[in-house]
Predict the structure.
Amino acid sequence: MMTHANLTRAWALLVGLSLVAAACSMGLPIRIAAPAILLLALLKARIILRDYLDLASAPSWARGFALTLSLFCATILGLYLAG
Amino acid sequence: MSQADSTHPPGALPGELMMWVLIISELLVFGAGLLAFMGVRLTDPVGFAEAQSHLHRTGAALNTGVLVTSGYLAARAYLWRGVGARPKARLALAGAAALGVVFLIIKGAEYADKAAQGIAWDTHPFFTFYYLLTGFHAAHVVAGVVLLLLVAWKDAPRNIEAGAQFWHMVDLVWVLLFPVIYLLG
């Protein structure tokens, strides 16, 4: 269920994960940081779906989105590392 | 979508079904665009990395914070409207829309910087994708700002819910687009 407290926690997590991603992209060689950056993007997408779009109340749909987005990020990573 | 709305059966998609059709459609369109971008990158990874070095990563990272904060305000607006706090809800929606405008100003500065460097959509395939994907996303931000202001005016809970869903979709697309276009050089 969406509550003000859950939303505030989600927002803080999103900001925190964005800062970590920025630190990874600046502090590490990009080919090493790439998996972490994509994992952080995936986590942020899941938080937006779960808390902002309230898919926490529809767990089967949340799992479907999570699986599809995970496959997408894995494909992006594969294409990146192949280049 | 929230504690303010108990009409959804357990496990069903929250909010308007047509908004979910739109969200999934947009994710597929942007997802295909990003996969095509990465596919074309395979033909010239060095050129793509060089082109990407002209982007302003700090501004784009700042825009991530702007959008997730804007989405937060839109989500809270729906909760406030659900308990009858209409002025708070309207203020939050206006704040969300204002942050959308901030996003567009930062994006505009980024485009102006590229133009000043003589970079156009046909300078390199990287920039073709860059302008196509970020421009299409910016067009959604413009639509979202208009929609947020509209639902702040016509503030029935279902309207605010639909407007917030659209705005979260814009947010969702950005968190996937940003690392691929701006960071994976």
Q: What stands out?
A: The radius of gyration of chain B is 18 Å. Confidence is low (pLDDT under 50) at residues 1-6 of chain B.
